[in-house]
Write a structure and sequence with these properties.
Blueprint (H helix, E strand, L loop, with lengths): L1 E2 L3 H10 L10 H17 L3 E5 L6 H8 L3 E6 L10 H13 L6 E4 L6 H6 L5 E7 L8 H14 E13 L5 H12 L2 E2 L4 H6 L17 H9 L12 E9 L2 H36 L1 H34 L1
Parallel strand pairs: 2-3, 2-5, 3-4, 5-6
Antiparallel strand pairs: 1-8, 6-8, 7-8
Helix pairs in contact: 10-11
The chain binds S-adenosylmethionine.
Length: 318
């Protein structure tokens, strides 16, 4: 499922979760958490992992209140909006670990960090999720490693749900996200209307009704008083919820692998043909062929000469 929220949806969700019905600089994040609450109510996962929670207590509070096992994984990174390392760890303890002893917090990052890989159990979670994390990761290799790692943590059929903040003029990122999710082994089934998002079409959600955040305010909020502008706010968000590969995802992976094998075979055949051609050219057969070509070129030159002479005679007779 791929979804850009509308104002109506925000209104409906804030009816259910009234603590969020207020003016805010964090509209997209609040939407993301409300949408996760609703997903949890619909799908009833027993074990949830939030990666990239930062200092947000929202999902921990919600899950523990509803008797759901909740884990969190995040760590200090040298991002421009991060407080210094000691302050980050102190906030993490004060705002999260001390407040929610029933939750399990891992200091780490999804992706390639070996310590995190060891600490998070595989095929364990029913839901792995994040709010406003993936848009910050620009590099394709890193994003793929995060998605693949998330896939290993999920039980078969488990859900992977994220909000990815967007600006409308760049639908390319939505296409990439869908490709990356598929490459990481998730089933991504899009309805015809959802596929419109990938074209940046306003047929999916009329842009004048889309849920927007004020980019300038978000920029100021994230800059945390820095004098240099480091961050441009986003406009809206893309909510995606996909499942760990069932049959469709496995079929897609197999066809991708088959395609790659075909391409590799074609490259190998071309390389072999090339080296065979070079061997023939360099050996006695090549020498014979070259002599034959020289002879034929001589004959051709002679024929051209005769043709020119004949044409000259015809010219005189005319
Ligand atoms: C914009 S903050 C979002 C925080 C929180 N979800 C919210 O909406 O308030 C992005 C967070 O993602 C975290 N992050 C980035 N890459 C991550 C990764 N590979 N694994 C876990 N967390 C990651 C960062 O450390 C940061 O805390």
């Amino acid at each position: 499922m791929l979804h850009i929220p509308s104002v109506e949806e925000w209104w409906r969700l804030t009816d259910k979760y009234p603590q969020f019905r207020q003016p805010s600089n964090l509209t997209l994040k609040e939407y993301g958490y409300m949408r996760l609450f609703e997903l949890i109510e619909e799908q009833r996962p027993k074990r949830v992992l939030e990666y990239g929670h930062g200092f947000s207590p929202t999902l921990f509070e919600y899950c523990l209140k509803h008797g759901i096992e909740i884990w969190g994984v995040d760590d200090h990174m040298d991002l421009h909006y991060f407080p210094p390392k000691e302050v980050w760890y102190e906030n993490h303890k004060r705002i999260l670990r001390d407040q929610f002893p029933g939750a399990k917090f891992i200091l780490g990052q999804l992706g390639t960090r070996q310590d995190t890989m060891k600490e998070l159990p595989k095929s364990y979670f029913d839901l792995v999720c994040s709010v406003s994390v993936l848009e910050e990761i620009g590099d394709e290799g890193t994003i793929l490693s995060i998605l693949k790692h998330a896939g290993t943590l999920l039980k078969p059929g488990g859900m992977f749900a994220n909000t990815h903040d967007i600006v409308f003029e760049n639908p390319r990122r939505s296409k990439l996200l869908v490709n990356w999710l598929r490459a990481a082994g998730f089933d991504v089934e899009l309805t015809h209307r959802e596929a419109e998002i990938l074209n940046g079409s306003s047929r999916y959600v009329p842009w004048n009704r889309a849920l927007l955040e004020n980019p300038t305010q978000a920029m100021l909020c994230y800059n945390l008083g820095d004098l240099d502008r480091m961050f441009s706010g986003h406009w809206s968000t893309l909510f995606s919820c996909v499942t760990k590969a069932g049959q469709a995802g496995v079929a897609h992976l197999i066809s991708e692998a088959a395609g790659e094998l075909d391409r590799r075979n074609a490259r190998e055949i071309a390389a072999r043909d090339d080296s065979e051609r070079r061997a023939v050219e360099g050996g006695p057969a090549g020498a014979r062929l070259r002599a034959e070509i020289t002879r034929l070129e001589g004959e051709l030159a002679e024929l051209h000469r005769q043709l020119a002479t004949t044409r000259a005679y015809v010219g005189i007779l005319d």
